[in-house]
Design a protein that fits this description.
The protein is mainly beta and about 300 residues long. The protein has helices at about 25-30, 35-40, 290, and strands spanning about 45-50, 55-60, 70-75, 80-90, 100-110, 115-125, 125-130, 140-145, 150-155, 165-170, 175-185, 190-195, 200-210, 215-220, 225-235, 240-245, 250-255, 265-270, 270-275, 280-285. Among the domains are: about 1-145, no CATH class; about 225-290, no CATH class. It has a 20-stranded antiparallel sheet, with helices on one face. The longest helix is centred in the first third of the chain and has 7 residues, at about 35-40.
């Protein structure tokens, strides 16, 4: 059931957060639909400037009588996302509580679209959010607003898009995020520390070890979606270093240096990677048996997940 506030001397219903059940001041930076409707005057229609430097406009409508809503987020021109259309239903209360389900359809800078389904439940200062992509991979975030930050755990697939892990993180009112994960699964020890500056730039520092191969490195993503990756790989057969920089379009390059085992130039074209090596060989990246051990175990391709921080 939809709950709204009736403003004195006005017969039209409005949604204004007049009696919040959470005293943490999150509505100005993490309120989502409630934030937009409240900032738009509470009548349902809104056209507002969201918090942070990425989204420059949020406009749409929340139907107070039915709970149906649709709105669009527009982003700054350098961002790899161009726009996101959000359409769903649910309720937003004058307490700040929220229970909504929606399809988020994002159009990127290349004109390609992708969609996720999200369910967001906010009761008092407690939040549970579930995100499901087209491959039915799920991320579940559970947390609580405390003062000017959101403390949470986030459960979902890790480096290979399948192995589940639990991140522990903090999302602050300046939209910065820090989170980490440490787990052992199927003989692999994996740790990762991730930072997001809230302006579209993220970095993931990680270590991967299965007892026979040790890899560590970092992956950086800037606001345009350009991916920069550095890997140091050690095994009983060889030590290798891999450096790559690839634009969001999938074009770029890098090097793979295994010393006596081979040195190769890597070329990416629309995310297809080919190698040209100093021993005269060429072909698909990582296809050579002598280079197979150096194949990246983590982030073979970049990840552009929808997460907190760079929303």
């Amino acid at each position: 059931m939809l709950v709204w506030a009736l403003i004195a001397c006005v017969t039209e219903p409005r949604l204004e957060v007049s009696r919040p059940t959470c005293q943490a001041d999150y509505l100005t930076w993490a309120g989502g639909l409630t934030e937009y409707v409240d900032a738009g005057g509470g009548r349902g229609d809104f056209d507002v400037d969201p918090a942070g430097p990425l989204a420059t406009r949020a406009f749409g409508n929340y139907e107070l009588s039915s709970g149906d809503f649709v709105y669009t987020l527009e982003y700054q021109p350098d961002y790899w996302r161009a726009s996101t259309r959000v359409e769903g239903y649910g309720y937003a209360a004058t307490t700040g509580d929220l229970d909504i389900e929606a399809i988020w359809k994002t159009t990127d800078a290349l004109g390609k679209t992708s969609s996720v389904m999200k369910r967001d439940v906010r009761t008092g200062c407690t939040v549970e959010s579930t995100e499901l992509d087209i491959h039915e991979r799920a991320w579940v975030t559970e947390g609580r607003f405390v003062g000017s930050e959101f403390d949470y755990t986030r459960t979902g697939p890790l480096y290979d898009f399948t192995t589940p892990g639990v991140y522990t993180g903090v999302w602050k009112s300046d939209l910065t995020v820090t989170e980490s994960v440490d787990l052992t699964s199927d003989g692999v020890d994996y740790t990762e520390d991730r930072t997001d500056d809230g302006a579209g730039n993220t970095r993931e520092d990680w270590v991967w070890d299965d007892g026979s191969t040790h890899q560590e490195g970092y992956d950086e993503y800037d606001v345009t979606g350009t991916w920069t990756s550095h890997i140091e790989s050690s095994s009983s057969s060889e030590d290798c270093t891999i450096d790559r920089e690839v634009e969001y379009s999938g074009d770029g390059g890098g090097t793979l240096d295994c010393g006596a085992g081979g040195v190769c130039d890597l070329t990416y074209t629309n995310w297809v990677c080919t190698r040209t090596c100093n021993d005269g060989s060429s072909g698909s990246c990582w296809a050579s048996a002598s280079l197979a051990a150096a194949s990246p175990k983590v982030h073979l391709f970049p990840r552009q997940a929808s997460r907190m921080g760079s929303r």
